[in-house]
Amino acid sequence: MNTNILPAETDIVISGAGLTGLCLASLLARQQPSWNILLLQAAPPDDDSVTSRDAGFDHRQIVLAESSRRILSHMGLWSDIEQHTAAITEIRVSDRGHIGRSQLVALEQNLDAYGYVIDAAQLASLLSAAVDKLPNVQRSKVTNHFVLKPIANGIVLQEGSNSVHARLTVLANGTAPLAAQKLGIAFQCKDYGQCALTAELTLTKAHRGIAYERFTSSGPIALLPLPDLNDSPRAALVWTLPLPEAEDLLNADEDTFIERLYVRFGQRIGPVAAVARRVVVPLARTVATEQVRNHLLLMGSSAHSLHPVAGQGFNLTLRDIATLGEVLSGIAADDGNLGNLASLQLYEERRRADQARVVAFSDVLPAVFANNNAPLSIARNLALLGLDLAPGLRNAFARFGAGLSTREARFND
Questions:
Q1: What is the DSSP string of 57-84?
Q2: pLDDT, tens digit (0-9, with 9 covering 90-100), for 86-99
Q3: Distance (Å, rounded) from C-alpha 216 to C-alpha 371?
Q4: Which residues pair with residue 119 across a beta bridge?
Q5: Which of 235, 252, 284 is the last residue in one of the domains?
Q6: What pLDDT digit, counting tens, does each position of 4-50 carry?
Q7: Count of CB atoms within 10 A of residue 279's CB?
C-alpha cells in the first residue's frame, strides 16, 4: 500500500526504498505476516525511489552471487528475476603486463554459475512489484531531514509535525549516515582517489557467460556478461580510473573510447560494436563504527559501502538481510522484544566475520594489483598461477567470491 501518511505506530520502519530496503521488507514481511512494516522513500528532490537517477538505478549492473540466488529463491523471487539475468559460468582473471592469470569454471565447484548479472533498474522494478503485493507493507515518503528519537521501547522517527513510533528502525539508504551521525554514530571513510567508469558494450561475438577481471596499474577492469538485447550480445564494463582520465573517456567519441579500451584490456571479447550509458562514479569506502543500537540497525550502504571490485557489496548486504531475518524470526517465535539490543547484537555477532573478510578483500585487492613494486608483482603473479594450478585453492577462492564460504542463514519455513 502506498500513502504519504505516517502511521502513529508500526513494528518496523525501513528508511530507504532502494534495493536493500525492498529486499529487507520483502523477506521480513513474508516471514512474519503479523508484523506491520513501513517502507520509507525519500521525497523529491532527493527521491531514492526505483525510478531515481540519484539512486544509481539508471546505470548500475548488479552481480547476484550464488549465495544471493539461494536467498532470493527462499523469498520466492528468483523465478521472476532469473529470466532477466545473464549467468557467469566462467571467470578469467589476469594482470596486465604480467604472465599471471587464472581461469575459474563454475562446473568445477558443482555450480551452475558463480553469479548472475542483472540491470539494477530491472531488479528494483521486480522487487518493488513483489513488495506491493504484500499486505503488511505500507509505503510512505519523507524528506531526508527527519529526526530519530530513541525512547524506552523503540525509536520515534519525526518529520515536522508527523511522527511514527517503531519497535525496530532500519536505516538502509545512502542518506542514512546523516540521521545516524546525529545520534553520535561515526563512520570510517576512505577516498580511493579514483572513479569507476561504467558502460554497456554491444559485442559482435557471444560472451558465452565469461566474466573478465583484469588488473592494471590504474585499477581493475571488469567485463560482465549481460542478457542479449535485440539479439545482440552485450557486456557491462566497470573500469577503475583516476578522475581526469575517467572524465576524458566519458566525453570521448565512441571510436576513441573503444581503441583505448583495447589498449588497456586487449581484444579478448572480440570487436566492440557500440558503447552506451557511460557514467562516472567516485570510489570510496564507508564503514559504520556501530551497526546496532537498541531498536536501531544500519543496513546496506549505511553500514558498509565498498570498492566495487569483484561485485561483493550487495551480495554481502543480502547475507546480512538473511541473517537478520533468521534472528528476528527466532525472537518472534519466543514473543520477545522485536528491536531489543541483545537480539541485534546477536545479528551483529553472526555477521562480523563475513563482513570483515569482504571489507578487507575489497579494500586490499585493488591496491595490491595496482602496486608496481617488483617483489609484490612477482608474488601476486605466482598467486594467480597458483590459483590456476591448485584445484583446492581455486575452489576456496571461487566459493568466497560466490558467497559460499560463510555460514548460511537458517529460515523457519
A1: TTT-EEEEEHHHHHHHHHTT-HHHHHTT
A2: 999 998 887 755 55
A3: 9
A4: 61
A5: 284
A6: 678 899 999 999 999 999 999 999 999 999 999 999 987 654 444 33
A7: 17
| CATH code, 350 | 3.50.50.60
Q: Specify whether 173 is located in the same domain as 218.
A: no
Distance, C-alpha 76 to centroid of its chain: 20
Sign of the dihedral defined by the CA atoms of residues 292, 294, 297, 302, in that order: negative
Q: Tell me how far apart the alpha carbons of residues 268 and 74 are, in angstroms, rounded to a whole number.
A: 37
Count of residues in the chain: 413
Instruction: For residue 35, give the C-alpha cell.
Output: 508484523
Q: Give the whole-angstrom CA distance, residue 5 versus residue 228.
A: 42
Collapsing DSSP states into helix, strand and coil, what is residue 333? Answer: helix
299 and 186 together in one domain: yes
Report the relative pairing of strands 292-293 and 154-159 from DSSP bridges.
Answer: unpaired
- Predicted structure pTM score: 0.87
Kindly tell me the burial class for residue 363, based on how many C-beta atoms sit within 10 Å of its own C-beta (0-12, 13-18, 19 or more).
middle
CB 221 within 8 A of CB 240: yes
Q: What is the CATH number of the domain that holds 241?
A: 3.30.9.10
Asked if residue 310 and residue 180 are part of one domain, the reply reads yes
What is the rounded distance in angstroms from the CA atom of residue 73 to the CA atom of residue 131? 15
Whose CA is closest to 314, among 54, 72, 139?
Answer: 72
User: How would you classify residue 209: left for phi > 0, otherwise alpha for psi between -120 and 50, otherwise beta?
Assistant: left
